[in-house]
Write a structure and sequence with these properties.
The protein is mostly helical. The protein has 16 helices and no strands. The chain has two domains: 190 residues, MFS general substrate transporter like domains (Growth Hormone, Chain: A, Up-down Bundle); 199 residues, MFS general substrate transporter like domains (Growth Hormone, Chain: A, Up-down Bundle). GO terms for molecular function: transmembrane transporter activity.
């Protein structure tokens, strides 16, 4: 690219032919995607907010709760691994209708089959469904809104974050008013609404496996068939997202404990967890504005977000008494921006929705397997050393490495290494 303007344009669309999406179709797709997004984090964070109540009600041990917290990441990885082939075989819309049904069934099962087995199976089902949705949303966005990838991806990520924050704040007070079963299971209504939206979308647009996807040149068609597992960019994206996910899930699990060890009260430490989560909307809106309105390069955003994570970790580790709110906030901004950026890149760096699905599946499989090791590794290092200095230093080193990975993963090139 010869200048920043052309680079920015390359960041906003793919080289395949981009057709203008009719307004009615655009909003139908957006509504379906946002209703899907409202179900994709809230069932996970809801359990974390109400875990002691569920533990007492079902007579579960701490080990049981630990497994319920770890299972989602394994299911996310499994769903990411198998969903591209299933989505291609049965169509994105058909697959996502089934995904919403399974997700909603899992939410209801946890609230009605009130035993350890029921809660476990329900958690496995809804987590596996979310793993499918994590992967298949990117190709849906590329298929149906190719000219608005950054905008729709940001709306999707923003909805996930906002709903997770709302549910985490409401579920405990609701449990005191209507009981924990309704407090957890009542959110299945969002799943039913999403199911209706996806059925309407399917009836309106048909199935993606029955229609031509995009107009490709002969060379692009050949590249589309290339295995993403052999692509250097795909591996860079997978590691980029994986190290970010390791940081996010480790901090999400231990942030209050870390701040208590640094001298904050339990109330203050709990507020840090809320600040960390609620930085996501600010990050997503700000990043979208920078990319769409200011033409800032994705590579600049990626490096900047990763540097924010580094600054936050340094502050928590070595300057905890100075500005605890600032260190927590900048790390929350960095984590949310990187996740959204990765989802964008799955669409922007591939030629077709099918290839976007493959890249999304491959990268998220690796990312969630890496993330699964984060909380367990940090907990093990803490038990070994008796403080959080060792775990924080280890995560800081990985995050510094991720600045370099960010530069590689966000370069303006396609999955085959050609200029975007």
């Amino acid at each position: 690219m010869s200048n920043s303007a052309s680079t920015s344009a390359a960041d906003s669309q793919t080289p395949a032919t981009v057709a203008k999406t009719p307004r009615a179709v655009f909003w139908l797709v957006v509504i379906a995607i946002l209703l899907m997004a409202s179900n994709m984090r809230s069932p996970i964070v809801a359990l974390g907010s109400i875990a002691p109540v569920v533990q007492d009600a079902l007579g579960l041990s701490a080990a049981h709760i630990g497994w319920l917290g770890a299972i989602p990441m394994l299911m996310f990885a499994l769903g990411a691994l198998v969903s591209p082939a299933i989505g291609k075989r049965y169509g994105l819309e058909n697959t996502l209708i089934a995904v919403v049904i399974v997700l909603t069934a899992g939410i209801i099962m946890r609230s009605t089959w009130t035993t350890w087995n029921g809660f476990l199976i329900g958690t496995i089902l809804l987590s596996l469904a979310i793993g499918f949705a994590n992967t298949l949303v990117a190709p849906v966005i590329k298929q149906h809104t190719p000219g608005n990838i950054a905008l729709v991806t940001s709306m999707f990520s923003l909805t996930m974050s906002v709903m997770a924050g709302i549910v985490s704040g409401l579920v405990y007070p609701l449990s005191e008013q209507v009981g924990w079963q309704w407090a957890l299971g009542g959110w299945a209504s969002l799943g039913i609404a999403a199911l209706v939206a996806w059925i309407i979308l399917r009836l309106k647009l048909g199935s993606s496996n029955k229609m031509p996807l995009v107009t490709l040149t002969e060379n692009e068609a050949a590249q589309e068939a290339t295995s993403v597992w052999k692509s250097a960019l795909a591996w860079q994206l997978a590691i980029f997202m994986g190290l970010q996910s390791l940081l996010f899930y480790t901090i999400a699990a231990f942030l209050p404990s870390i701040w208590i060890s640094k001298g904050l009260s339990e109330v203050e430490a709990g507020s840090m967890a809320s600040i960390f989560q609620f930085m996501a909307p600010i990050a997503i809106i700000g990043m979208t504005w920078l990319i769409r309105k200011r033409g800032v390069r994705l590579q600049t955003v990626a490096i900047g977000a990763t540097v924010l994570n580094v600054i936050g970790l340094i502050g928590i580790s070595y300057l905890p008494s100075l500005m605890p709110v600032v260190w927590t906030a900048v790390m929350g901004l960095g984590c949310a921006a990187i996740f959204t950026l990765c989802i964008m890149l799955f669409s922007l760096r591939t030629y077709t929705p099918n290839q976007a699905s493959k890249l999304s599946g491959m990268a998220q499989t690796i990312a969630y397997l890496v993330a699964f090791a984060g909380p367990f590794g940090a907990g093990w290092l803490y038990e070994l050393s008796g403080n959080w200095n060792g775990p924080l230093l280890f995560i800081l080193i990985l995050t510094i490495i991720n600045v370099i990975i960010a530069w590689l993963a966000s370069r303006p090139i396609m999955i085959d290494g050609k200029p975007a």
